[in-house]
Design a protein that fits this description.
Layout (H helix, E strand, L loop, with lengths): L2 H34 L5 E6 L6 E4 L4 E6 L4 E7 L6 E6 L2 E6 L10 E6 L4 E4 L4 E4 L3 E12 L2 E17 L3 E14 L4
Parallel strand pairs: 2-6, 2-8, 3-7, 3-9, 8-10, 9-11, 10-11, 11-12
Antiparallel strand pairs: 1-4, 4-7, 5-6
Length: about 180
Amino acid sequence: MKKSNLILISALIAIVFFSLAFQLTVHSYIKEDKANKVPEVFRSEERKTDSFGSIKTGERLRILLFQDSIQSVTVKANNSIIDSVQTSVDDGELLIKMSKDIRKKDSIVVEISCPEISALRLSGKSYVESNGILSGEQLRLELDGSSSVNLELNYKTVLYNNTSDGDIEIQGDIKNIQITNQPKE
């Protein structure tokens, strides 16, 4: 075998050896980093709010609605993002906002109970589900973006405006429903 072929084979073996050593070193650092990672802790936080009968959000979250004589708002989320979920009441409307962007894998659940809901104004990728039957005189339901709802209702009148691409599932006893479907431009 020629001397030049021997040098070439030795160089290839050295490159493969150093490449393998580099990969093993990087892999051990990644494995060590994941081992030191703090596990995500979910917590539940009850929020104090003024009285409200309407709900508005444009955030990616799941809202569970309960009809109850006692009003409450409970946020359930990862410990690292729960403080960025802002809840406030403006003119009788509960506003749910995020102070920072959340990742797709982050899960936020807001449990809301109040005596009567008169309006739900949803946009973004919010999802609202009723836990039990919601009842009252009139409900204004406005959906936009990719918002979805799954509601069981007992209302005299429902004013329904939908420009959402999301799934809509409404059942129950509704005496009068006015539907406005505005196509997206």
